[in-house]
């Protein structure tokens, strides 16, 4: 995915600052609540809302939301969902794992929010890589590495918060390989 021709959103508008503040507030509240609260379930119940708010604000503030942009967003969502449905139902992609209840309603053992998460992570990785003054292939590689880096951070805590669980509580290396390959494609 190529984001290098996208202009940066206007960083000085009041609406953008409000949106950034809301996203920061939601994520910071969740982080503090999960790290220090005795009632982690209270904070976990807002995980779907936080993810939906974040992707919604990303899409609202995306400049140039034309048909091409929406088709790209839908393609990423669908490919992410298909990859995860294949993964959860066969183990062919990523390894053998199941999703918990935290991420909300599921289709074929896969939360709908996972498709949205693939969209958000791909979008953010692409935007961050687009700022680098390197050739297109380098930006694609960096975007994929950023996505795998996020997965590396999430994997150790995913089971604790009932996001997903690996068979035998072992994260297979192929998970990271498959994330990288899918990220390159997206």
**Could you state the order of secondary-structure elements as H and E?**
HHHHEEEHHEH
Low-confidence stretches: none
Q: How many distinct beta strands?
A: 4
Averaged pLDDT? 86
Most strands sheet: 2 strands, antiparallel
Key features?
single chain; 186 residues; mainly alpha; two-stranded antiparallel sheet; 7 helices; 4 strands; 65% helix; 5% strand
Helix/strand layout:
Elements: H1 14-36, H2 40-44, H3 47-60, H4 67-90, E1 97-99, E2 106-107, E3 110-111, H5 112-130, H6 136-158, E4 164-166, H7 173-185
How would you describe this structure to a colleague?
The protein has 186 residues and is mostly helical. The chain has one domain (14-185). Helix content is 65%, strand content 5%. The chain has helices spanning 14-36, 40-44, 47-60, 67-90, 112-130, 136-158, 173-185, and strands spanning 97-99, 106-107, 110-111, 164-166. Strands 1-4 form a two-stranded antiparallel ribbon. A hairpin with a 2-residue loop joins strand 2 and strand 3 (110-111). Helix 5 (112-130) crosses helix 6. The longest helix has 24 residues, at 67-90. The chain starts with 13 loop residues before the first helix and ends with a helix. The model has no long low-confidence stretch (mean pLDDT 86).
